[in-house]
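DM between two lab members

TW: hey, do you still have the DUF112 domain-containing protein entry open?
JB: yeah, one sec
JB: this one, 510 aa:
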Amino acid sequence: MDQLTHLLEGFSVALTPSNLLFLVIGAVLGTAVGVLPGLGSAMAVALLLPVTFSLDPTGAFIMFASIYFGGLFGDSTAGILLNTPGNSSAIATTFEGHRMAKDGRAAKALGTSAIGAFLGGTIACVLVVFFSPAIVRLATVMGPAEYFALTVFAFVAIAAVVADSIVRGLVSLGLGFAVGMVGIDAMSGAERFTGGTPVLFDGISIIVVTVGLLAIGEVLHVAGRIRTAGGNGPFLSPKGSPLLNRREWRQALPAFLRGTAFGVPFGAIPVGGSEVPTFLAYGTEKRLARRRGDADFGTRGAIQGVAAPEAAGNATAGSAMGALLALGLPTSATAAMMIAAFQQYGMQPGPLLFERSGDLVWPLLASLFLGLGILLIINLPFAALWARLLVIPRHYLYAGIAVVAMLGVYAISSRVLDLWMALAIGVVGVIMRHFSLPIAPVLIAAILGPMAETQLRRALAVSEGDPTALVASPFTIVLYLLLAATVAVSVVQHLRHARAERATKARVPA
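TW: and the structure you got?
JB:
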């Protein structure tokens, strides 16, 4: 098969000493950032993106492959040891993982998390390699109306799923669109919302936006809460062996596979990342535990409750990479950061990427497998070492993050204006966190908004202004029907949640 030949060629590039060094450095840095509470995998990519600017594109993206998964590997560590997940994708893992840690099985929980992340990510990457040609063929027959429908689906589905309120999600989308509108109009060449400032003719750099929202915003948010947060919380040191024995493997392996089955399809559709599949995987294991009478689940902590959501999270990330490369569609905040990295090197992910930049794509796919293996090696025996990062006082930790973030922003173009914009966007990020506005829709809209506008205008130009052309194909009709179903389910869930909260408050005596 052609993809196997291409993949082997990719391995020959990725296995050179310099590229292996980039993989190891990316894995270490990604895991180190992912371990820290509140930062996570998207922050790892945003914070470390400027580090790769001096590398050639192949080396840079090979390094990004391990940063991408390294952040995901680290996300669960803080949740297991501190009951403070590094990212929302690790919340489901935290439920049973922290119970295992309190029961003296922290090392076992961390080992299960690392193995689950490795298996879920590897299976997803195998499927991406074998099915990416089919996705590319599908993408090549899509016109402007189909691409516009895909972007609308991404916008609304993410706004509906990742926010507590659909209104909050739409507000975040609006902020992202506002950022994406700044600069030169791609169709007419007119300048928009630049205030006559030549520096803004190319728009606001997505790196400035992401570092400002994720890094500076989080630093300012934490700085305002350090005195009331009471430190990092009780730290449970991982002791013992992280390796699973035969009985534990028999318990965990079916959960690994069930979690992967949940994660793979969700990575290919824009529903906000891995939150939904990880909770579905955890809920399935909880129901199965109740059926078999497992007394550890929900009390001492069950290994299946860590295995399934962790495999689901990394499987989602693996298939999200396939959707990103073949369709140019980021399905999560972390994938949005990856598309920003491609654009920084003048490349646009999509079906033509495999033809025009095959010498980059296949080493990148090969490095996903290598990166997962390296991450398993450095996470299983060194889990206790990563955990020591969690005892660093927060005021030192976040001050260092602020310095690194600002240096990275300045390194992009050596402009002081970028520093001021990053700081201003960071203040907006603090306000968004205060009012529970989700960050992911802002990043998705800022990146996909200009493309959605261009595709809409092309579709209307081809149809001479006939809006029915936007729903003229079976593909667009199916997408809009799925979108309507997604919004309806999300509204019902939000209403149930609000009703349950009101009922709980009503039962509490005044």
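TW: got it. Residues 106-140 form the longest helix (35 residues). The two ends are 69 Å apart (CA to CA).
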